[in-house]
Amino acid sequence: MYTYSDLEKDILSLKKTEREIIGASTLDKNIYALHKGEGKSRVLIHGAIHAREFLTAKLLIELLKDYDGSLPLTVIPMVNPDGVDLCNLGLDSIYDKSRRDYLYSVNGKSSDFTLWKANANAVDLNVNFDAGFGKGKLNLTYPAPENYIGEKPFSERESIALKSITEKNRYSLTVSYHSRGEVLYYGYENIVRYKEQVNKIADKLGYQPLLSKGSHGGYKDWYTLNFSGLGITVETGLDNASYPLSDKVFEKMLKDNKDILAFYAETASEIGKI
Ligand SMILES: [Zn+2]
Questions:
Q1: Which CATH architecture has domain 4-261+266-271?
Q2: How far is the CA of 259 from the centre of ligand 1 (A)?
Q3: What's the whole-model pTM score?
């Protein structure tokens, strides 16, 4: 388990870390960006945009605790706090009865939200970005536990928050943490950049680099389409693990990602200003 309140507690214990609130979720929880190092950050790393992948938030916090480099970096550990709490705590995490009823019905009249990926509007945030919106093979046009694109690109507060911080700071490298598969996705449609850096990061993680195919509406897709830096998606965690992911899976994630933040910060400074 890893909830929004676990995250808030952990954030308070972080040393030499600047905390910024970059927006609010559908149910008014804070979306935090954490800054470490000196100077202008060229790398943005985010996790838990998909509810059931909440261990990526815990992972990023643990990695931040260990990071003592001087190169600046920015981490948004939990893009989708409402979804994370729904997944961890079920409908008890929702105060408003009409919303509770709505989510229960979207979830096929089940109280088990273990596999939920969306936010509290039942929109899958990682298909809500403006890059081939609605063209993904698995995309749905109605509220669902996963794959619902929303009414329009950036219909959701959480995707807007991620868009705004990205546009404001023009990062050279963006890394989206998902689980699972132990692979790294890069590129969007025909756009492929910084293949050498992709390979180095994949090597360091011990994950296979894969050219992204048929993916639309994701953050990495949107970033790759609109900026000239490198956007990657890291799928961490054993491919055959089932949800909720076990402590053993988490231990492996930690091991795979050891010192990776420093590597991202170096890669971003290598790419330079975009
Ligand atoms: Zn995901």
A1: 3-Layer(aba) Sandwich (3.40)
A2: 22
A3: 0.98
